[in-house]
Amino acid sequence: MREVAVIGTGITKFGELWDKSIKDIFVEAALKAIDDASIDHIDSIYVGAMSGGLFVGQEHLGAVMADYLGMAPVPATRVESACASGGMSFKQAYLDVASGNSEIVLAGGVEKMNDGADVTAALASAADQEYEVYNGITFPGLYAMIANAHMYEYKTTREQIAAVAVKNHKNGSNNPNAQFRNQITIEQVLNSSLVADPLRLLDCSPVTDGAAAVILCSMDVAKKLSKNFAKIIASTQASDSIALYQRKSFTTLNAVTKAADLAYKLTGLKPSDIDFAEVHDCFTIAEIVVFEDLGFCEKGFGGSAVVEGMTSLDGKIPINTSGGLKSKGHPVGATGIAQIIELSEQLTGKAGKRQVKNARIGLAQNMGGSGASCTINILEAV
Ligand code: COA
Fold first, then answer.
1. Is the pTM here over 0.90, yes or no?
2. Which CATH number do you get for residue 212?
3. How many domains does the chain have?
4. Which of 317, 363, 280, 298 is nearest to 156 (CA)?
5. pLDDT band at 287 (very low <50, low <70, confident <90, very high)
6. 150 in ligand 1 pocket by Cβ < 6 Å?
7. What pLDDT sits at residue 116?
8. Active site residue 83
9. Which end of the chain is more exposed for a tag (fewer CB within 10 A), N or C?
10. Mean pLDDT value of segment 183-206
11. Residue 306 sits in the same domain as residue 372
């Protein structure tokens, strides 16, 4: 396998994009990435999307986007792994270049969630239909069960969980593309509407329209085109039972620990070598569980790590400097690519007010459903 770099990024504003179609936003992000990379051709395209069909009635998104970009007959593939579709699209693009099959590849992600679909039902199609969804559970409900288990097993407090949302909104206030740029307090989180006990409105990622794209290429091409870029040093994935009730524990996500173990083994890195990370905070409790499962602290101490500032922008390991899914927004298929964009901006010193000092190695963790699929990508500054 040869070395692969990320040399261009493009992203739309995240939020309610009523005046644009799913094709418009994907093309907007893709053209920005192509322009940023200063390239004149692409060998193949990957499109991460959870469900164009359920959200806007449009499937076949690989060919649709290649056509709308004016790039047919370039090979174009849609990649689906629920909310991890973006991260998996990036992994397929990485393998395409690393294997020598392609020289320059576009990895994108898109979702248009606000166009009238029953969003909660569409999202629930990524959970176990025959037991979980049949009995009425939704994703807020599944993560509420994880939160209750964590609070019971580790004495994690409601305030510690709320602190994740407060930190991420603070980071997102400095991200011009974020859906919610307002800062919030612990009291506001605790007093927001109850969604699924104990999770409240301000514990949830929102319903978002958005697209993101990055350009990957071989190191040889990258060195000719740019002096300031990041390289990919690990791209791993793992899976777990789709249904929460089938797991031994609600408070450890096995797909996350497996994908992380593999990434650390491949790179020879320890969790303490990671300078910052973007993690999948679809609900506040998810950030705490994932932080622990990535090995950044001992199991059970994820809540106190947030309150003590370990994960803040100026902390020992800043988490979700982009604002995370909570503040930046969660257009499910685009999320994994947006995480890579934050890594790339941090590692090339372009993150502005969100910049992590001396950022050399960043990790992105993207997962589907209640953690049945997970991909981890680690990037290093060159
Ligand atoms: N964070 C902050 N504010 C939010 C928000 C969120 N997650 N969701 C909505 N809001 C705001 C809206 O902007 C609106 O503000 P306004 O009154 O000032 O305009 C207000 O709260 C009500 O918005 P509305 O769209 O009516 O909320 P809702 O009750 O329909 O939806 C949730 C709220 C939390 C249920 C919805 O965002 C949701 O389902 N989130 C989870 C998505 C999910 O499961 N993703 C997959 C993860 S696995």
1. yes
2. 3.40.47.10
3. 2
4. 298
5. very high
6. no
7. 86
8. yes
9. N
10. 98
11. yes
